[in-house]
Design brief:
Length: 103
């Protein structure tokens, strides 16, 4: 009772089998690579933004250090003095005089 398929039925069967095989290949091979690629692309973009922000912070820090090199020396002097509340007030007064603020 074997039945021979007509040419039209064979063509339809081959098309359906081809589409099913392409679908399986895409779902199990290509799609996971595509998802991984997208995830890595987003992670690269986030890391790039973080590095840009960190570079801006470093540039600001360098600019502040170059603008007022005395302030870092004042902090080390405060650590060495015995009367720390008095030293802190003296340093604040010194800084306010530099910026022409009144205490």
């Amino acid at each position: 009772m074997s039945r021979v398929l007509k040419k039209r039925e064979q063509l339809l069967l081959y098309i359906i089998l081809g589409l099913a095989s392409i679908s399986l290949i895409f779902n199990f091979i290509a799609y996971p690579f595509w998802q991984n690629y997208q995830r890595l692309d987003k992670e690269i973009a986030r890391t790039k933004l973080k590095l840009i922000k960190y570079l801006e912070v470093l540039n600001r820090k360098d600019a502040l250090n170059n603008k007022s090199p005395d302030s870092s020396l004042g902090l080390t002097a405060l650590e060495q003095k015995e009367d720390s509340p008095v030293a802190i007030l003296a340093e604040l007064e010194h800084i306010s005089k530099k910026t022409s603020l009144e205490t």
